[in-house]
Amino acid sequence: MAPVVVNQTPILNSLTPDIASPQKPGQTITWTANATDADMDKLFFRFFLNGPATNGAWQPETDWGTANTWTWKTSAGDAGENQIKAQVRDGKHAAEGSFDSELSGYFTLSEPALNISGSAYEDKNSNGKMDSGEALAGWTIQLVKPDNSQVSVLTKDDGSYRFEQLKAGSYTVSESLLPGWTKQHPKRGPTPLI
After folding, report:
1. Domains of the chain
2. Where are the beta strands (DSSP E) in 44-100?
3. In sequence order, what are the residues at sequence separation of 6 or more whose Cβ sits closer than 8 angstroms to the Cβ of residue 96?
4. How many CA atoms are closer than 13 Å to the CA of 98, on its beta-carbon side?
């Protein structure tokens, strides 16, 4: 009696992005699903996304097809932790609505934190640069954010100030002038952070 030959299911071996996580939103990321099939059957793949843009629910990104890649054009709505899932089938085991093997991967999209810094000083010799003895310590520097909220800091002994952990946008920096003082530089206006 001849041995019975059983067709084997395909196995998804890896699911990898073409660039490493984390990245800024707006990047285009290509995911590749590598699978093997001992019987060399034609394979079909599909991809899903679960993340901030899908409200934490699995959303199909492709229909079943022979392409083992999916190109994800990210946006600001994808900022945060995302999970990508690939499924494979050979059409000889699982029904069309199901799969033979699957793998998931994680990818983080985040905006880098930006900073605004500068110095307050009295330009005694009108050269536009801070020279020794010109630093203004203890002055209040205000920052108006894109949402019109405000924060302030005091200048350090060397006249420096710094606002940290800012998102991209337009900001306005100003100082609270003490009686008898006039601001000469810089000119007032929003400072775009990109």
Report:
1. 11-109 (2.60.40.1930), 114-193 (2.60.40.10)
2. 44-50, 59-60, 69-73, 80-89
3. 64, 89
4. 7
Q: Which residues are bridge partners to 32 per DSSP?
A: 16, 69
Instruction: Give the pLDDT band (50/70/90) at residue 194.
Output: very low
Mean pLDDT of all residues belonging to the chain: 89
User: For residue 154, what are its two tokens?
Assistant: 């005091």
Residue 114's H or E segment, with its range, is: strand 114-119
Q: Residue 191: which of 110, 122, 99, 115 has the closest Cα?
A: 115
Please count the residues of the chain: 194
Instruction: Assign 10 to helix, strand or coil.
Output: coil
Question: Is pTM, for the whole model, over 0.70?
Answer: no
Quote the distance between the C-alpha of residue 86 and its chain's center: 22
Burial 72-99 (b: 16+ CB within 10 A, else e): bebeeebbebbebbbbbbbeeebeeeeb
CA–CA dist 35, 126 (Å, integer): 70
Residue 8's nearest CA partner among 87, 101, 97, 95 is: 101
Task: Report d(CA 186, CA 48) in Å as an integer.
Answer: 50
Amino acid at 21: S
* Segment 41-81, tens digit of pLDDT: 999 999 999 999 999 999 999 999 999 999 999 999 999 99
What are the Cα distances from residue 50, in Å, to 21, 78, 81, 120?
16, 10, 9, 48
